[in-house]
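Q: Two folds, back to back.
A: First:
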Amino acid sequence: MRTEPVTTCDMNINSIVRRLPNGYDTQRCHPTTRIQSSKRLTSLATTNDSDTLFSMAPRFHRVVRKTRRDESEISPCIKYLMFSFNILFWILGFMIAAIGIYAWIEKDTFDNFGRLTMGGTLFFDPALLFVLVGIFMFFIGFAGCVGSLRENTCLLLFFSFSLAVIFFAQLAFGTLVFIYREKVKNEGEKQLMIMIQSYRDDPDLQNMIDWIQRHWLHCCGVNNYRNWESNTYFNCSSKLVGSIEACGVPSSCCRLEYFHNNKQCGFGTLEPSAVTQMIYTEGCLPKASQWFERHILPVAIVIVILTVLQILSICFAQNLRNDILAQKAKWTWHTHPMMHYYRN
């Protein structure tokens, strides 16, 4: 039984028909006809006209997918190293700020602002210093932690920019201190005298001064122990109001071997004929200079380590940000008319 030839080309247009010896007809379509047929199939596919394209076939739905061309550009080592470091920095900043806020509330915040306006002791309030440093660390740690984990380029830019500002501010401060060291020394001495005058007014300041005099530098006053005469409570004129601390110095000025046996060893030491062998007579400012001269190497090592950590953090943040931008640039939208179809 003879079978009719099955073709996909028009037998009358641009086609060549050849009869084989076995009686079957073969048809070779002209290339122009092939192109027209391909365009027809493509147009049917892009218009979702699947009934016309395949009358017995199920319907096809177009799918647009976001694909990557090759491997990820983002280094997981840098990403999670940034995350681990900054989450610790974030938690530490939160704890420091919480301690400072709690201490400040306990001391009456509005009184602190009043002393700031009158005496200018803002920068030497330990509680306020904790609050400012803690809040700054909290926001920087948050930006670095979330920015690295969520691959957020804006947060990473804020993190690196903040660290860069801190780094250059420290560099400028150190340069200015070295150039104007005499002026800085005089200004520091002036601020330390304000701290002595406010000794009894701020419990946190009092604890800090006691720690410096008793445990760290083993000193008394700014330049010598007689600087305590500028404090109202220790001035000899306080005898008129019956102050037991008049003409004396704080107990933190007492030498350790005398302090354990007599907590009032500093009383009366500002009298002209008083014996001062039980207290430290050298001031804290010269003692601090001596301490830094003896520990110049450890101090320099700490400064170098902090500087390197800041520079590495800036470099890692910028490197991670550039990797994220490079990865986003490699994402493309593929919308080929026949590649991304699926059946019901």
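A: Second:
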Amino acid sequence: MRKPVAHLSSKSQRTPTRGHGPVIVRGFAMEEFQSATALHHKKTVQDASGAQQPTLLSSLWSVLFVISSALIGFAAFRNTLTWHLQRFWGASGDFWQAQWDRLLDVVGEDPFTFWVYGPAILMMAVYWIVGGIYTILDVANKPAAVRRYKIQPGTNEPVDSKRLMKVIGWVLFNQIVVTMPFIYLSYSVMEWRGFPALRELPTFRWVLVEIAVHILMEEIGFYYSHRLLHNAYLYRFIHKRHHEWTAPIAVTAMYCHPFENIFSNVLPIFLGVFVMGSHVATAWLWFSMAILFTLNSHSGYHLPFLPSNEAHDFHHLKFNQCYGVLGVLDRIHGTDTMFRNSRAYARHVLMLSLLPPREAFPDESKCKAK
């Protein structure tokens, strides 16, 4: 009798035979698992890289959305403000036109009267009424609450009467003897250029455009003429008089050499009026604004709700900084570096509260002491 085949009964051989199928299945399953894992990993990487791109795009869109929203908001605010002001101007336009017509009916329509006598009277009235109020504060050294707004505390408290009288004398000389002839000359120049009809007032929007040009022309004219006056020779013989006051007061705005008064004070203000061929009413408005601004710049007080005059006060203190009116050309030419590194620059803001700037932005030594 023949024996069974050994390989069928051998356990050692049977086990591989029995186990061959499962080993192959496990290997295939493992390969499938590894392939699936690799595909999943690849897909995950692709998803991750794909997720990064939308994130960058979404960030970009967010930035664009914020910027565009801000621009739209600003445009809407500007248009709304302009619309309300236009409505006010339009609603009161008849009123102002009626008052202007009444003035013309009384004074007549001679351009000489409006271009010569008008600016002269306006200059004297605005300068001495507003400048006089500041002077009273400086002479009386009261009230104490106002002294808290002094840019340079301890100076001109009270102002020296002899120095003040010298200033008043020189200012009157510049206004009457120097500026009056220039006003007449400016009338002749405007007559040559051709000015608009006297009786019809300009529109509100056009007044805004002209005032913007006037401000720009003054910034250019004043900056370069003022900086030229700081030439060693010109400073010594011309501009030094104005810088006698390292801590200025309001009425020192026109305390200067006659040449400087014409070249650097009056001419830059007139440039925009000539370029735009402004209506005399717009010219009056602009002249008043310019006089009020220069009085404030020299006042020595940084009062709330008024434009900051820290820059020009710093110019009187340091001599070679902040030559301009707006500060735009100073930034471009780098003539405000020392100012921007000073504590005065932190105070160079429009104060919208009654807190004095020196208390809102105290000196660094006082900050360290606290």
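Q: And?
A: Residues 110-364 form one domain.
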